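Propose amino acids for all 389 sites.
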């Protein structure tokens, strides 16, 4: 692990990608800055590039349902939502956390940049698919060399993925006499290389590649969630993957992407009602919880999410013994969060407050409807990240 200008930098030669810690702040720690070729002195170039603030910032989320773009504009000391754009994907483009239709994604990026008049700005995207993990861990105080070795040795166990298939980086968040707290991120190497290639083929300059859990945390803090005490959970419920982010006293704790999403509900409706997948999907978007099997299906979905949430929390406690108490509140977002009565079902099952994340401060979203914003949360978080670097 090479440190340049106080930036944690790892060079992935095969993908020509640099992972760096651009700004150590509550807005997030890690970003991946794409370079077209290998250069000496890249740390200096990288540092200077990201210090030049642009008026506009773009967040791009390659999700399972489509390509979502959020545009943020700096206006004096304020940051406001300028535009939201969507290009739906046909079925099969994304499956099981993997990009199956690369050409379709490339064409979607090309199309949106060709048809929309975007001003110059900082462009931030998220690593597509799943298998990204971010954790805050506590270790005894040790020197830099020991710490590098320890993180390398423990990474495979901590992230449940083969070490050689990962890009791993960390930053020290806090150091006391007897311990130090680290934020560690693990990203599959092949997904980093794929993201770079998608934008390169589309002819669009990508400045920073972030991860979805940190993008959601950027949005959470933008809405004022960092002022909350106790243990809070962010659930970004997508089509096939839900991103779970744990926040303790406003500080990022850990995150994991789990394979439970809105498709689970569609498949249960399909089975119970004897419908085709398309018919079940259409019914899900209506008031399905009022149907004969609706409440039972919703409760099953909530139980599945609750089980995954507990596993993530147990994992956090394994690595950070100071985590005490129960979850006080759950903030949900994503297309899957649009299910009618989801909040009531979650509250009744787990006796915990459940609200849309935009309940924190919807006024900061300049009047956009929550049911619209829920689909763009990752893209919004990415654009907020771009607006502060």
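Proposal:
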């Amino acid at each position: 692990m090479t440190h340049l200008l106080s930036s944690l930098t790892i060079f992935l030669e095969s993908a020509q990608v640099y992972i760096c810690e651009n700004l150590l702040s509550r807005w997030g720690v890690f970003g991946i800055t794409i370079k077209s070729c290998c250069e000496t002195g890249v740390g200096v170039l990288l540092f200077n590039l990201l210090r030049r603030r642009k008026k506009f910032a773009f967040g791009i989320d390659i999700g399972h349902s489509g390509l979502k773009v959020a545009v943020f504009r700096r206006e004096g000391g304020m940051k406001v939502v300028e535009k939201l754009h969507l290009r739906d994907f046909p079925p099969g483009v994304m499956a099981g956390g993997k990009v199956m239709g690369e050409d379709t994604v490339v064409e979607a990026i090309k199309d949106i940049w060709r048809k929309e008049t975007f001003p110059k700005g900082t462009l931030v995207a998220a690593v597509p698919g799943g298998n990204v993990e971010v954790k805050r861990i506590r270790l005894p105080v040790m020197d830099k060399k020991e710490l590098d070795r320890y993180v390398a040795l423990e990474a495979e166990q901590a992230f449940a993925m083969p070490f050689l298939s990962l890009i791993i980086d960390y930053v020290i968040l806090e150091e006391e006499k007897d311990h130090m707290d680290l934020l560690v991120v693990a990203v599959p190497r092949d997904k980093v290389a794929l993201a770079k290639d998608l934008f390169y083929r589309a002819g669009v300059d990508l400045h920073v590649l972030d991860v979805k859990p940190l993008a959601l945390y950027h949005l959470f803090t933008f809405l004022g969630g960092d002022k909350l005490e106790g243990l809070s959970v962010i659930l970004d419920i997508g089509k096939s993957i839900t991103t779970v982010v744990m926040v303790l006293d406003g500080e990022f704790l850990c995150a994991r992407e789990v394979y439970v999403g809105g498709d689970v509900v569609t498949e249960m409706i399909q089975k119970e009602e004897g419908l085709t997948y398309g018919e079940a999907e259409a019914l899900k978007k209506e008031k399905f919880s009022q149907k004969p099997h609706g409440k039972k299906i919703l409760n099953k979905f909530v139980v599945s999410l609750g089980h995954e949430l507990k596993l993530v929390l147990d994992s956090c406690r394994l690595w950070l013994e100071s985590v005490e108490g129960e979850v006080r509140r759950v903030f949900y977002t994503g297309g899957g969060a649009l299910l009618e009565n989801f909040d009531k079902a979650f509250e009744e099952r787990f006796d915990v407050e459940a609200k849309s994340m935009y309940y924190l401060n919807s006024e900061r979203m300049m009047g956009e409807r929550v049911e619209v914003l829920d689909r763009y949360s990752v893209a919004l978080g990415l654009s907020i990240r771009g607006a502060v670097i």
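The mean pLDDT is 79. The longest strand covers residues 78-88.
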